[in-house]
Design a protein that fits this description.
four-stranded antiparallel β-sheet, 3 domains, alpha+beta
């Protein structure tokens, strides 16, 4: 009986020791190198700040309008620290979300060769028209969030993300008023109309284009004179009605017949009239 009990105790000790060794050598958190256990040190990525802005550049004057190029941008500052030398270089994929910059911008890839400070920027460019001598309104840009993923040879993976609190989000300026927004979207619609190719019109493209541009000028004047309902009527009845056949209107009286152009122009005009209706 004593020999049997001793044998059972030895077997139990053997199983415990074996299980402990198995648990140690199969740990998913460690890399086994010979008889040594090495814990890999990945670089640390940290977002340290961000900024947003708008640049306005005059292009040229045509048909009583000044054309401006509006570039909106947002950037994040980030640092990489620590990590084994063998972890470099690696690729960092930086995603930035900012309004009103389009959200379909893919992540930006950056090669990181070592610890240091980095800046990544996204931007979008639009063109607008305003009556000659006017200063265009520029919609502010707000940096909403950013995330960074670092990958090296599909082995290293480290990431960080940040969503700025609503009261301290980097922003390029104050929000536009309803009147300013209406003027902005009217100018965007005017530019898109002016740059339409001739085959986007049903006939007499130069005559149609010039007539519509004159109507946009009248809208600007009404907005400036605070005749907001008159501006709405002009946009809806004298402009939109001539380019809405594939959207929600009568195609028989359209001047602009390109379906893609109609969709874009009607959207811009609807936003303009929506803002005017809020005043």
């Amino acid at each position: 009986m004593r020999k049997k009990l001793l044998a059972m105790m030895c077997m139990s000790l053997f199983l415990v020791a074996g299980f402990s060794a198995f648990a140690q050598t199969t740990s998913t958190n460690n890399t086994i190198v010979g008889d040594s256990i090495v814990t890999p040190t990945f670089p640390t990525i940290e977002i340290t700040g961000g900024d947003a802005g708008v640049s306005v550049r005059y292009q040229r004057t045509v048909a009583g309008y000044d054309i401006y190029e509006i570039t909106k941008w947002a950037s994040v500052n980030w640092i990489v620290s620590g990590g084994k030398e063998s972890a470099y270089p690696f690729t960092a994929r930086v995603s930035i979300s900012a309004l009103p910059i389009p959200r379909d911008i893919p992540p930006i890839e950056r090669t990181v060769t070592g610890p240091g400070s980095y800046t990544t920027t996204i931007s979008g460019t639009e063109f607008t028209m305003v009556p000659e001598g006017w200063i265009p309104n520029s919609q502010p840009v707000t940096l909403l969030s950013a995330s960074i993923i670092g990958v090296k040879n599909s082995v290293m993976f480290t990431w960080t993300s940040y969503i700025w609190p609503i009261d301290i989000r980097p922003c390029s300026g104050p929000a536009l008023t309803y009147e300013e927004n209406a003027a902005w979207y009217t100018g965007r619609a005017a530019y898109e109309t002016y740059t339409l190719p001739d085959d986007a019109f049903d006939k007499n493209p130069e005559q149609r284009r010039n007539a519509l541009m004159q109507k946009y000028l009248e809208v600007f004047e009404k907005i400036n004179d605070q005749e907001y309902q008159g501006a709405i009527n002009k946009l809806e009845n004298d402009i939109r009605a001539k380019m809405d056949g594939s959207v929600d209107g009568n195609p028989n009286n359209d001047w602009v017949i390109d379906a893609e152009a109609q969709g874009k122009l009607c959207t811009l005009i609807d936003v303009a009239t929506g803002n005017l209706g809020e005043i």
